[in-house]
From TrEMBL:
SUPFAM superfamilies: Clavaminate synthase-like
Protein name: Cupin domain-containing protein
Residue intervals of the JmjC domain: 164-261
Pfam families xref list: JmjC_2 (PF08007)
InterPro entries hit by this protein: JmjC_dom
Membrane-crossing segments per the record: none
């Protein structure tokens, strides 16, 4: 493998066999360790403005008891009803039918469960369980009290993508989001429990959230009510895996974001391989699992022009793990579900961005080495490890 001075390369299985484990300068290992710690600290600082101190303080470990939070600076920057409406009408959306509808954007439910997709759209193919949305039928359903669930809405919202990266950084968990749009007064999920910790974040409108006793049966009724709160915009609730709960809409138009936290132990307890992370076997420990976690931030254009004032931030919420040295003296490291090799100076730049994001290129560059930093930055962007802003 031949590399130009500032290039970053993804290593394949054969290349990885040649890594000299541990052969990384101690100063660079220390820099990376510091960068990982600072990145988590800064992520927690940003999250406190959205989720509040109590929720953020509980994120770094499996949740043991429910905690309520409140956005400190309002919810103006979070996606609201208007942004959702723009997303809904921007292009044809896909609705899940009677099957899983794995490729669908959304599904509709009432109190009896998931509704047939052919009520709200047109079948794409004769045997497909996915339907192309008819916006008029969907609107009528929402007005009639049906709840619309949008999968992974953070893929469509830059603000939520950045927020989810911070949640991943602080919790060390993979996150899966679902946006629930409701206008009725009936819970469409009823009393149930989830197999992982969950954060409920109210984006607009209001919803009544109830947690029952641990012995509440699936479907209810609750053995007793241990928490009964009306969540309003900017309110959040973190509760443990397995805790029975229900969310009841209150008649106003509401948007609630459910954030499922899939930790390392959740996959083991399910005996389910997190294959979406590109692994063929269970990650051996939480540290390895963390390094596999991917960013929600959209990639920068590879042709982006970098100037001294260009803002940079990383796309590696799980941090950087130095692995060793390649035969030609490059540093091998793991990050964001991949193993890469780069020059020590390039890894140094990556660590600087990771510790401080966002940071301007001229702030991250060594004195007199702005052009080298720009070349390194472009290569890191090409590999999807950092993104450039205005």
């Amino acid at each position: 493998m031949t590399m130009t001075p500032h290039a970053v390369h993804r290593l394949d299985e054969v290349d990885r066999l040649a890594i000299r484990v541990g052969a990384v300068p101690a100063s660079l290992v220390s820099l990376i360790d510091t960068a990982n710690s600072k990145a988590v600290e800064r992520a927690a600082e940003r999250l406190r403005l959205v989720l509040g101190d109590t929720v953020v303080a509980s994120l770094g470990r499996p949740c043991e008891a429910p905690s309520l939070g409140r956005a400190a600076d309002g919810t103006g920057w979070l996606p609201g009803r208007a942004e959702f409406e723009r997303w809904l009408t921007a292009e044809p959306r896909l609705i899940a039918g009677p099957g899983t509808g794995a490729n669908a954007d959304m599904e509709l439910r009432d109190a009896d469960g998931k509704l047939p997709g052919d009520r709200f759209g047109n079948r794409l193919e004769p045997d497909s369980d996915t339907f192309q949305m008819d916006i008029h039928r969907v609107r009528r359903a929402l007005d009639g009290g049906v709840t619309l669930g949008v999968r992974q809405f953070d893929r469509w919202s830059a603000a939520l993508a950045a927020l989810m990266d911070d949640v991943v950084a602080v919790s060390g968990a993979d996150v899966f989001t679902k946006l629930f749009i409701s206008a009725g007064t009936t819970s469409v999920t009823g009393w149930h429990s989830d197999r992982q910790d969950v954060i409920a974040l109210m984006l607009w409108g209001s919803k009544r959230f109830q947690l029952g006793g641990w012995d509440t049966p699936e479907g209810g009724p609750a053995s007793r009510i241990v928490l009964d709160e009306v969540l309003k915009p900017g309110d959040s609730l973190l509760f443990p895996e397995g805790h029975p709960h229900q969310a009841v809409p209150l008649g106003d138009d509401s948007g609630l974001l459910s954030i499922a936290l899939l930790r390392h132990h959740n996959w083991i307890s399910r005996n389910q391989l997190p294959a979406h992370l590109g692994v063929a076997e269970f990650p051996p420990n939480e540290g390895t699992y963390r390094r596999l976690l991917r960013s929600r931030l959209p990639l920068s254009a590879e042709s982006v022009r970098l100037t001294d004032g260009t803002q940079l931030r990383t796309r590696i919420p799980g941090g950087i793990e130095p692995l060793g040295a390649t035969p030609d003296g490059q540093v091998a490291f793991a990050a964001a579900d991949g193993v890469f090799a780069a020059s020590p100076d390039t890894v140094d730049l990556l660590a600087s961005v990771h510790a401080s994001f966002p940071i301007r290129l001229d702030e991250a560059a060594r004195p007199g080495e702005q052009q080298a930093a720009a070349d390194q930055g472009r290569s890191l962007i090409e590999m999807g490890l950092i993104v450039a802003g205005p």
